[in-house]
Design a protein that fits this description.
The chain is α+β, with helices and mostly antiparallel strands. The protein is built from six helices and ten strands, in the order H-E-E-E-E-H-E-E-E-H-E-E-H-E-H-H.
Length: about 240
């Protein structure tokens, strides 16, 4: 009898979950996270990435550089140039601007020749929080599984994804993984990119921005703190 009652309760829970809509973030709605369709296929540089700087108008200034732990590198006739959390195109413009004081109309190309490890951070209410190598196109649900799954105290309905965008802004979205598990039509999960942060919450979020600041950014390992904090202050 007890077993039958448990089954009935489970059925009711499943039915209610199927009627749930994905949680929308006023800061960054889920519908704005596009799946990988090539339209927003950008790559943000990070410390440890290697660049080849080609100065066509002055080949003697060509350099192979590695982005330092502070997210910057140096070129002749320029001060430190910020590269972390920027696209290659943005760094190319920055190099041209920095060298324009010494060279007339510098013609510069920037090539990515080596990359640091592709990592994401999964934290909060998961069994094994920490940094993980990004094995390919995975979504927030797969990331939580990599981290040992959500604990009994975790809330699959409020999983936060934090990402730095090409313009430098840090944005976050809240995903309802439970709704997508029970009804694939509600699974609007975005593929993860390196240095994304996935955080499984324990309690409902009253203020998403405050939650990200207090519970996520302050708990990040140094590699991720550099990407989300130092890169922002150098803009």
């Amino acid at each position: 009898m007890i077993r039958l009652s448990c089954l009935l309760i489970s059925a009711l829970v499943l039915t209610s979950c199927q009627s749930q809509e994905p949680i929308q973030s006023e800061v960054f709605p889920i519908k704005d996270w596009r799946h990988e369709d090539g339209r927003d296929n950008y790559y943000l540089l990070a410390p440890g990435d290697e660049l080849e700087i080609i100065v066509h108008s002055a080949p003697e200034l060509n350099r192979s550089v590695t982005i330092g732990p502070d997210g910057r590198f140096r070129m002749p006739y320029s001060g430190p140039i910020t590269a972390s959390a920027r696209t290659i195109e943005a760094v190319q413009i920055a190099v041209q601007t920095a060298m324009a004081s010494e060279l007339k109309d510098p013609d510069v190309d920037v090539l990515l020749t080596g990359t640091a490890s592709q990592r994401i951070f999964v934290g909060g209410e998961v069994s094994n929080p920490g940094m993980f190598d990004l094995p390919g196109l995975i979504d927030p649900l797969q990331a939580t599984i990599m981290a040992g799954g959500i604990t009994d105290e975790g809330r699959a309905r409020t999983v936060v994804l934090m990402r730095r965008m090409p313009g430098g802004e840090v944005k976050s979205a809240v995903f309802d993984l439970k709704a997508g598990i029970y009804d694939p039509r509600l699974a609007e999960w975005t593929p993860l990119r390196r240095f994304d942060v996935v955080w499984v919450t324990r309690k409902p979020i009253a203020d998403q921005n405050l939650f990200v600041q207090q519970y996520i950014r302050n708990a990040l390992p140094i590699d991720f703190s550099l990407f989300y904090d130092i890169a922002g202050t150098n803009r």
